[in-house]
Amino acid sequence: MQVTEIKKDIYWVGAVDWNIRDFHGYSTYKGTTYNAFLMLDEKNVLFDTVKKNYKSDLVHRIRTLIDPEKIDYIVVNHVEMDHSGCLPEIVELVKPEKIICSKMGKKNLIDHFHREDWPYHVVEPGETISTGKRSITFLETRMLHWPDSMFSYIPEEKLLISSDAFGQHFATSERFDDEVDETDLMYQAAKYYANILTLYSPLVRKLLKQVEEMGIEIDMIAPDHGLIWKNPGKILQAYSDWSHHKGTNKALVIYDTMWHSTEMMAHAIGDGIQSEGVSVKLFNLQHNHRSEIMADILDAKGVVLGCPTLNNGLLPRMAGFLMYLRGLRPTNKIGAAFGSYGWSGESVKLLNNAMEEMKFDLIDQGIKVKYVPRHDTLKECVELGKRVGKAVKEALESQ
Ligand code: FEO
Prior knowledge:
binds MU-OXO-diiron; 2 domains; 399 residues; alpha/beta; elongated; Metallo-beta-lactamase, Chain A; 12 helices; 24 strands; 24% strand; Rossmann fold
């Protein structure tokens, strides 16, 4: 089995999942990896494990380096099952001297595996342990994105093992950022942030500030998913930008449609936005996955939502999308709504209510059209798009 030395005597020993296509609602069309790392020192340390059905990949990789029984410590940076699913079998095999985790990590491991008897070693935030030639400092990253999450930092190597943070769902035979297409990599990193961390952006900002204040030097970030960052500057800057929900000169028109009336309106609104020099993307929910749309919402300043009325409410795809969007809580967006109706016509009001709840800056009450839009109403839609475009530009100027 292939292992990759990422720093002297520190090896990637994880697994590549080429087949996963859904990660609790996130479309992982590029697959993913479950990264685990083995550091050889006077005390041999395994950082995280892998998903349960990838245990043999992990064990075979470890065996190419050492007998698994020679592992002294297992560090559990994060309890979620894609990193701890095979932990019971690994603990049985390795018989570690210590299972190192945060206080919440111990609690959550017990709640998952019901093993009070494991040799837990709870570390405090900022605590350092020696492994011989090197040391590990543990940084608490509570709620990034689970209560138990923490980072492991190896100062002698300037290496940050960052659990889920800075990851990407991206299955590759390559292990490092400079071995793959950068545009593809940054898109996957953005999509990952958008779908997993948007909600926790205030904590990301706090963490980045804390790392800066501590003067921690980082020349490699090894996340638990995807490529390892040999050049961490770019992803650190991207996390800073994303966590501030800054937005760029871009607006999205996201809609569902029944008999194409709402779709006609979407096209006209998109034209209006574009005519103001703002980049626009249209997403029909029938053809675009919510997690792909979230990746674009991350840096879009404007979000226009459209839906016809069905049974006094919204079409189910839009209702589901709003549920997902509300959960992730993007902020600092310019919003507007539109939709067609036959008789009752509640959809635009419902879309406005949802955007108000998310504190989007609504430019007006939007446009609703009975049955099929006429030329005049499509002109009104173009004007709505222009108002969105202008509002996006003004908001960016005042940022
Ligand atoms: Fe990759 Fe939160 O588990």
